[in-house]
Give the backbone structure.
Amino acid sequence: MNNEEKRSVENLVLAIVRTELANRRTLLAYLNTALALFVSGIGMLKLTEDNWLEWLGFALVPVSIVVAIIGVVDYLVLRRSIVAEKARAAAEESDG
């Protein structure tokens, strides 16, 4: 394997690592949003006397759960893709 091919494989490995870190940040953003929605919903249920704010609170709690589930599923799907790409990069590196 010449230097140019070696550099190309190293760049691919670094790109995979950056993608993995971005995937983790995205999961944390989803969970942060879900937590904020959940806390807001509970706060509206406990602290308000207005009927429409209670209904909004009842709506925000399941929405927060759905957001958390979407975030976890998105993370797992992309993680599976990243693991497959890592295996392909490792195979390329060992072939050279």
